[in-house]
Amino acid sequence: MSVIKSAKTVEEAVKLALNELTADISDVDVKVIEKPKSGFLGFGSKDALVEVTLKDEKRKDIKENKDSIEETCCKDEVFVKSDDLKKIEDFLKDLILKMGVDGEITSDEDEEAVNLYINKSDDFKALIGKSGETLESIQYIVSIFARRHTSLEKRVFLDINGYKKRKEESIREMAMIFAKKSIRYKKVMRLRPMNAYERRIVHSTLHNMKGVFTASEGEEPHRKVVIKPKF
């Protein structure tokens, strides 16, 4: 898990990232993408831009777990799982066991989706994979099972230890940072190669932003989002 932050100084940007990750400096690797520049008479100044990555994907976000526990304890309604939902849970449990990984699975439903969560596991990293690719593959397999073997017609959403939520927030923030740079410097900004899920997040984040438009270029697995200023 990594986040990208900007601030007046590298130290301030790193501190913002550590707060979001709920981590100490010893738990992360820091990459300085851009060093700050003071400019001249206030012109041409640039904030520092850093990427901070957790060294261990297994590390839990204490704050999110605490909030989750408090929310669960305070619920007045009792959620009764349907037979179909239990069937999907059992299939997911069996699937990850065949991958050699054990985990605690919870689930719920809303109007749009069946939501599955793997909250405890002996190997989060194996289930998530590089850039979340294994996680997306597991979700796809479970979606096929749900369509073929249950009466549920909703989409399937799978998250592991809050990974997707944190990753989406990080990608949206990165997209906004580079979009503002594109507008400010009237330059085309090319992001790092991303999978289809990550590219969709960037496109949706900047879809209604004035001054820029986005496009994807290149071939998989090196396909990336390009942010272009509108003249």
Automatic annotation (TrEMBL):
Database matches in SUPFAM superfamilies: R3H domain
UniProt cross-references to InterPro entries, sorted A to Z: Jag_KH (IPR038008), Jag_N_dom_sf (IPR038247), KH_dom-like_a/b (IPR015946), KhpB (IPR039247), KhpB_N (IPR032782), R3H_dom (IPR001374), R3H_dom_sf (IPR036867), R3H_KhpB (IPR034079)
User: Where is the protein situated, by its record's location annotation?
Assistant: Cytoplasm
Primary location class: cytoplasm
Gene3D superfamilies with a match to the protein in the record: 3.30.300.20, probable RNA-binding protein from clostridium symbiosum atcc 14940, R3H-like domain
- Indicate whether Cytoplasm appears among the record's keywords: yes
Q: How does it assemble?
A: Forms a complex with KhpA.
The entry sums up its family as follows:
Belongs to the KhpB RNA-binding protein family.
Protein name (record): RNA-binding protein KhpB
**Organism in which the protein naturally occurs:** Parvimonas micra
Gene (UniProt):
khpB
